Amino acid sequence: MIVMKFGGTSMGSPDRIKNVASIIEGKKDNTIVVVSAMSGTTNTLIDICCKLKDKHCNEAKQCVATLHEHYRQVACQLLETDECRQRAIERIDTLFKQMSELTKEEIFSDYEERHIVATGEQLSTKLLTEYLIERRRDVAEWNALHFMRTNNVGEVDTDYLHKTLTDMLSEIGVPKIIITQGFICRNAYGEVDNLQRGGSDYTATLISSAIQAESCEIWTDVSGVHTSDPRWVNNTHTIPHLHFDEAIALAYHGAKVLHPVCVAPNKQSNVPIRLLNTLAVDDEGTLIDGNHDDVVLKGMTTKDDIAVMQLTWNIAKGSTARKEMCNQITHYLSEIYLVHSTHTSLFICMEKGKHAELLLESMKQHGTINNRDDLSLLTLVGDGINAQITNTVIDIINAIRPHDIHTLSIGTSDNTITALIDKNYTKQILQQLNDALF
């Protein structure tokens, strides 16, 4: 059995849904298909929630009505038989009736918001299911709320997922195609919720890991992972193969194709992930698995939204200040990209946000702060890159020589080299690196 996931762009119109169906039909294996909401739907649902929070109820109701009519039109354009079209419209009407009821609440809470935001995936699964039924395919629709749940600390209950999926598969005798929703789940209190990080990709990798699938295919509108962001850099190419750790490193440091949390389940279960393009089905994309290869340097990525802080110690506090700061840092390790300490200073690069602000406030108690926002974090990724470091570093220095490298980190990871570069020259530096190294 394989698991396939199709994103919002892939499901973005009746023609795109038909294209997805043809890709699914081309598989010989039994398949679990995870789908996202149609592109634009989740943003519209979030906008509806924002209007309700701001007490703009009439505007919210108009948005609900407009979206409702849009989905009825999609069903009519997609489905030809009266029976399938009627079932789809009945489900669409039911979901929008439930949404309309939630807009009448005097107090609009997170509970109502989670219900509304979860509607998009339920709409898209119904449309795809009915289209496949219309094409006389052996298909079943599963509600992700029956098997995907989180525990009291917000982590996915993988034991429950494995047991429930195993039971569901044995009960139905495994039809060729099973359609289910990405992103949505229930929380520890049984309420509708969502997986947040990684969304539908995370659903797909969790399912593929839980059932020990042959593979997990993530279908988007790009052909796998590129050596650099093709929106910024010319002459990039698709990376044919990544080790799980390389994929996690690229995602963690800014590559947009997958969230790092999505790779972790498959690394643990050793189920391969393949990133593919619904608009170019013949492209091989990127294979992510547990195998190593001989390519030292795979790709590079940048992050602009970072906080860079340098603390010069209050000498009077000496080692006490350093010890207190090290204790503070341990609370935010998952969000720190670089940290460097000397006898007089501490340098930190981390993700922007509330935690960075809290750490900055605590650092002010121990010395003088230099807080910078003019730098980008550049990361080069390759399996064992630091084992063959000399020539690679020379190439990097030669490529970036016209511009300052503010910090170069080598040796902290087996598969990354990181540098802080001038944000104003990010595109130029990426292009120079691409031309020199790939």
Structure description:
The chain has helices at residues 14-25, 41-53, 57-78, 82-102, 110-117, 119-134, 158-172, 199-210, 244-252, 260-269, 318-329, 354-363, 389-400, 426-437, and strands spanning 2-6, 31-35, 139-141, 177-181, 184-186, 192-194, 215-220, 241-243, 273-277, 286-289, 299-303, 306-313, 336-341, 345-351, 367-372, 375-381, 405-409, 416-422. The chain is built from 14 helices and 18 strands. Strands 3-4-2-1-7-9-10-8 form an eight-stranded mixed β-sheet, sandwiched between helices. With 438 residues, the protein is α/β, with parallel strands linked by helices. A hairpin with a 6-residue loop joins strand 17 and strand 18 (416-422). 42% of the residues lie in helices and 21% in strands. Helix 13 (389-400) crosses helix 14 (426-437).
Q: Note the beta-strand portion.
A: 15-25%
Count of DSSP E strands? Answer: 18
Could you list the spans in which at least 5 consecutive residues all have pLDDT below 50?
none
* Gyration radius from CA atoms, angstroms: 24 Å
Put simply, the count of helices is 14
Give the integer mean of the pLDDT values.
88
Instruction: Report strand order across the widest sheet.
Output: 3-4-2-1-7-9-10-8
Straight-line N-to-C gap: 36 Å
Helix fraction, binned, reads 40-55%
**Main sheet properties:** 8 strands, mixed
**What structural class do the secondary elements suggest?**
alpha/beta
Shape: globular
